[in-house]
Amino acid sequence: MGRALAEAALTTGTGDVPVGAVVVDATGTVLGAGRNRRELDADPTAHAELVAIRAAAARLGSWRLDDTTLIVTLEPCSMCAGAILQSRIPRVVFGAWDEKAGAAGSAYDLLRDGRLPHRVEVVAGIRESESVAMLTEFFEQRR
Questions:
Q1: Which residue among the candidates 7, 39, 49, 99 is catalytic per the annotation?
Q2: Catalytic annotation on 49?
């Protein structure tokens, strides 16, 4: 989670919401890292999770990210949850809950929906206070 928080901090000055993500293998080696880049890249799909997933897939040369873990500072949204499911990531660890748009247990629970063929283990609240603090500071500065 430390690396994901460091990625989130790199959004300072870009106008992007401070969210960071990493994809690691079973040994903890970082396969891909990313941060929100929607404002920076003018790309509505440039969420931290998608940036990290794309980097990991490129490094592995495969869209299947079996035996990996996605670590992200904010609960994934429905778009990111869909990408997690499609890339076969079996485990997601996140910091802060997103009560408005989260899709890993708060507003929705796509990652563990029994109607879908692939389910994901979800671990929530890891270094939550640090993740929340970054988000709170960002939104307070924008007001």
A1: 49
A2: yes
